[in-house]
Write a structure and sequence with these properties.
The structure holds two protein chains of two kinds.
Chain A: H1 5-16, E1 30-37, E2 47-56, E3 59-61, E4 66-69, H2 77-83, H3 87-91, H4 96-107, E5 111-114, H5 117-130, E6 140-142, H6 143-150, H7 165-171, H8 182-203, H9 208-213
Parallel strand pairs in A: 1-5, 5-6
Antiparallel strand pairs in A: 1-2, 2-3, 2-4
Chain B: H1 4-13, H2 24-31, E1 35-39, E2 44-46, E3 55-61, E4 64-68, E5 73-78, E6 83-84, H3 87-91, E7 98-101, E8 105-111, H4 112-121, H5 123-134, H6 163-166, E9 179-180, H7 186-196, E10 200-205, E11 208-214, H8 215-223, H9 233-236, E12 243-245, H10 250-260, E13 264-268, E14 277-282, H11 283-290, H12 294-302, H13 310-326, H14 331-356, E15 365-369, H15 371-374, E16 386-390, H16 398-418, E17 436-438, H17 439-451, H18 455-464, E18 468-472, H19 474-490, H20 493-502, E19 526-528, H21 529-547, H22 556-566, H23 571-595, E20 601-603, H24 609-632
Parallel strand pairs in B: 9-10, 12-13, 16-17
Antiparallel strand pairs in B: 1-8, 2-7, 3-6, 3-8, 4-5, 4-7, 10-11, 13-14, 15-16, 15-18, 19-20
Classes of the chains: A alpha/beta, B alpha+beta.
Chain lengths: ~210, ~650
Amino acid sequence: MSLLKPFFNFWKKEDDNLFDENISIEETRFVVLDTETTGFDYENDRILCIGALVLQNGSIAIPESFEMYIEQDHYDKSTAQIHGILKDFILKRPSESEALQQFLAFLGDSVIIAHHTVFDVTMINKALERNGLPILENKTLDTAYLYKKTLIESHLFERKDHYSLDDLADKFDISKKDRHTALGDAYITAIAFLKIVKKLKEKKEVNLNSLFKL
Amino acid sequence: MKNTISHRVADFLKNFPPFNFLHHLELEKLSEQISIIYKDKDSVIFAENDATHDSFYVVHKGAVALKKNLKNAVLDMCDEGDIFGLRPLLAQENYIMEARAYEETILYAIPIAVFKPYALENRHIGNFLIESYASNTKNPYSDIHKNKLYGDFIGEEPSRSDQELFDLQPVKYSKKIVTCGPSTTAKEIAKILTKKKVGAILIVDEMLPIGIITDKDLRNKIVSGDYPITTTAETIMTKPVITYSKKMTVTEAQMAMMKSNISYLCLTKDGTVNTKAVGILSKHDLMVALGNNPAVLIKALKRTTKVKEIKPIRARIMQLLQGYLDQNIPMTLISKIITELNDACITRVIEMSLEKMSSPPPAKFAWLALGSQGRSEQMLHTDQDNAIVYENVSEVFRDETQAYFRKFAAHVNKGLFTIGYDYCPAEMMASNPKWCLSLDEWKTQIEYWITNHGKNEVLLSFIFFDFSVTYGDSETANQLSDFIFEKLKANPIFYVHLVSGALQSPSPTGFFRQFLVEQDGANKDQFDIKRRALMPLTDAARVLILSHSVKSISNTAERFEKLAELEPQNSELYLSCSYSFKALLKFRTKQGLLHHDSGQFIALESLSKMEKIKLKRTFKTIKELQELISVRFNVSNLV
């Protein structure tokens, strides 16, 4: 027994990082976010807009949503075709530091949900570093990853490596009206997340903890 | 704070009363205060006698059933754009009925505190609210907050649970009146009627109805040769028009038509010929409102112009199915009729999708239903399994043709999803490039399945070999069937694999003859009637019928009946298989209707002793059948 103990503690320690088993998905405050950026380079590209909303108990309160366009010097004409944010439009916006601080206040210690979360979180963290702000330590979930877990495991059917937000919107019948605006994409991500959880629940019981262990 | 999502909400609300009365800036402002709520199927939004919430609700996606727990009957169904839960907020009393998500639903919750000022200030909104409550005064449910603007949609009122009370409902009439002036010629009128797909046209003079011309008038007066086709409307119209108030009930309308022996009623603002015509009510509208019978539903289906309009018709088909089951009509007949109707819905979706394409199909094609649908055993809303086969085209046009059919299939799959068929989780759908092939490509594919008998190949052929043609060129599909038989004859070993596949379904009962239930997941402790009871029969029937090279019978029960004919020595077993299959299918269908799902999983405690005995009796037949095929095809040699 005594031999086993260190091992037991080792596991216990790991578990501390996760949440109380009793916390349900419904109780949890999720912040679903998306960023529009000047490009995909973590070092050189900049965030043009952060869109985020609060998802709690299956409900999204519009007054509680966050949509902020950020003033940036770096500007890339080629990506403007995607997000439609023109430079002039950005100039009248708050500075990066200001926007980030407001965003941190909005985010709190909520669980972050995004589509390809690594990208958005890294972009935000790089911006936080540049502005001498602490980087994000929030728990994160990724709808691109979670969606794959809803698919049946069968040799009859090839899973794709990447499922875009468009793929999810099509599968779940979510209107793509505001695609490529930060908050519009965050909304699609939020609805997709709810539908993913529903699908996962059909397979087996799901609580907040198990979402991180999939 | 104005943002992208509030725009999105406002953009939706502006299409529905009373929000359409708001100025767009007001609507934007209102939308900024709304919450978006996701509700799983069957979750309760509010219960009877609950204290009111601070918001009322608008259905954005999905449907919400309003019911009184006492009777547990659905009193009203709220569709996209419908409001519910408003009256109790205005009257400041508790909810008097329960609201429950009928399917997966997204709601907009609008805080009453934000909305109330608009209701008080804006006359149109106030009127709308008053009218939508007042119009229900004749309605037996007037004590219930029924918020539909009447006359809103024609024939879109789903699930009418209380038939006798329904007769006193206000009629739903067509608001799109087809009219013309008194000098229009008969020829022009015929063209208009054809184009608008209606049977009557109203002749108006300065918006006031002065006469009516129906198909019958054209037949009796023009086609008969009594008048030339250049005759003006004035000359041949029936006058005066018999007009009624738009507030008439279904029963009143019926009596009016019988009394005057006419098929069309003109509804005017105050019921006299001196006011504006507001709508036309046809016998057809009335029939649709009155009841479900296959002929009426098919007719209603033919008149649809948008995929969305098919969904309520499907709801009525389900009602019809329920009725048939209640009346204990033979399952063979029920499945024939319901399959026919479901096929008609699918065909309509296909036709509409073809219209959406910019050009006609570049080659002949057939839309194939696979799996249970191909076997005509799909009665409830289930997943879609389908494929396209098109005739071979020359190399030059190959890519172009392929691209066309994939695009077309994507339209159809989306349309089918809209009317209630879920996407196939394994992507066995015609929009998947692997299931949208030319005849030669399919032949290569099938040859591969038959000669490479791995587990997957067997499974894929299980699904595919049950195809039936839903739409298009059956000759191409026929060539495919012939090819399958040819290849099977050449590769008899494939049967053995088919049989071992057929024997792999999990057993329905355990050692002590108890039911085996699911161990895990959302359906824990429930009995899987599809995999444990229906599939073993279906799979065995397929192998046997293929071995006899019988073409174009894909229905499992019919296959067993054919087998009984072909093998008289086993006819008793086969007939009992056919019977068992029908009994199980009926069982599943009833369960599915009861729980508004596919009926695949059954909670055993909900069954009566008698039902359990019936189920178990079928299991014995399944076991005997499995023994027969395993001996006949000598499976033990393989495994």
